[in-house]
């Protein structure tokens, strides 16, 4: 038996239940691992609440990003060894497996060796954020002197985008609702911070870029504000929408896009990791950044013990955090 988090009904963090469940042996292509730490993601919160595109089959396991040590190998697994420390990447449908558990079974295909020199907390906070934010490098091809607008900049993905933009020689423009987090965002690398409830984003971006506009906007919020983001883009700029945190319909801002020949497109990290060559390139770049120090996972707060997962989720959803929320087992 292993202590495992499941939920039997959709809803808030209080729906997360700690249970003793049988685990068994890993099947073909799977490994069993002792989980050391997990990083929390908004997608998991949406899944638990019933607001994710994939609806849970109840009762549901949960959790798909973290770090642990392999304790058993299933048939056919040859790339890893018992005792090896590995990262679990969120490359599976939610609910098919779940690593919010002291021990878990996962497919070997969603593992990578944990980078040396990183703590468990840092190793649990790498792949979702950097693979998601990698759109500004791989697709937008952000270059020297080009600007990237980064809404929800205090999120783990937002901070990853700031770091990637800076490393590329670009201009990182953090967007946050109020100025409360402005100084913290600047300390974490944002070259400019715009408080969207206090100032006109499009005007500020045009001032920062000497009237050129931004090469891209990387938005997890969606909703009507995409019209403002579109007005802040440079000619042939790209508006990425990688989430729907607003909970409102996201319109297509036709005229701001049409007059400048801009593009609006959806984005999820699986667009990279479902294609082996793209995944390998992104992995190499991210590992280089971690080694060189250009990329540094930011941990907002660490909670201790599997029983702290409901509290940690409540903290994530309070929007107080700057960076990744991690639970250490």
From TrEMBL:
UniProt cross-references to SUPFAM superfamilies, sorted A to Z: GroES-like, NAD(P)-binding Rossmann-fold domains
Q: What Gene Ontology molecular-function terms does this entry list?
A: NADPH binding; oxidoreductase activity, acting on NAD(P)H
Name the Pfam families for this protein. ADH_N, ADH_zinc_N
Say yes or no: keyword DNA-binding present.
no
Which keywords does the record carry? NADP, Oxidoreductase
| Residues covered by the Enoyl reductase (ER) domain | 11-327
PANTHER family (UniProt xref): QUINONE OXIDOREDUCTASE PIG3, QUINONE OXIDOREDUCTASE PIG3-RELATED
Annotated protein name in UniProt: NADPH:quinone reductase
